[in-house]
Specification:
Layout: H1 2-6, H2 8-42, H3 49-52, H4 63-77, H5 84-112, H6 127-146, H7 161-183, H8 193-206
Helix pairs in contact: 2-4, 5-6, 5-7
Amino acid sequence: MFIAATGETTGKLLILVSFGAQFFCGMSSVTANSRMIYAFSRDGALPFSSFWHRINKRSRTPTNAIWLAAGGAFVLALPAIWNITAYLAVTSVAVIGLYIAYVIPTFLRLRQGDDFKAGPWNLGRWSKPIGTLAVIWVLFVSVVFMLPPANPITKDSFNYSPIAILVVLGGAGLWWVLSARKWFKGPKVQGSAEELAAIEKELQSLG
């Protein structure tokens, strides 16, 4: 498409730019995802948490969590080799999932109203209107990304991202109701000088 629209040289340059953008986007996604896996496993909220929570003593990174993030992304993208509809669904779910994850804390803050205790950095009187706009925007773009990419709607043009989103939300909700709410106590706060020193000492002892 780029080559047809702009010529061979410019088209190849644009393809290279797109390739680089997707590569760095993928790297940032794996980085963020692996750290979330580490944080959830640190809190005991994932199956086999003790394994995913391990820190590599040489690189000081959660290597197991990184491999899980990269492997999960690879498995999710595999169907795209045979079916472009699957690729569109995966990319839509990725965008929708990020938006939903970002906006949930915003929605909960709005829901709490004046009882919410603001931190040292906040938007002041603009907090509620900006938060409201953020929630509305996420609802809008989520619907847009769930729309079918072509008309008429067939099994090949149907957008399966709503089904995938419902499966994830339903599975997480079911797990919470049946199990997690009975034992999950919330995130374990780490970050004080003493805690970081203890973690560093533990890593050194492993070496």
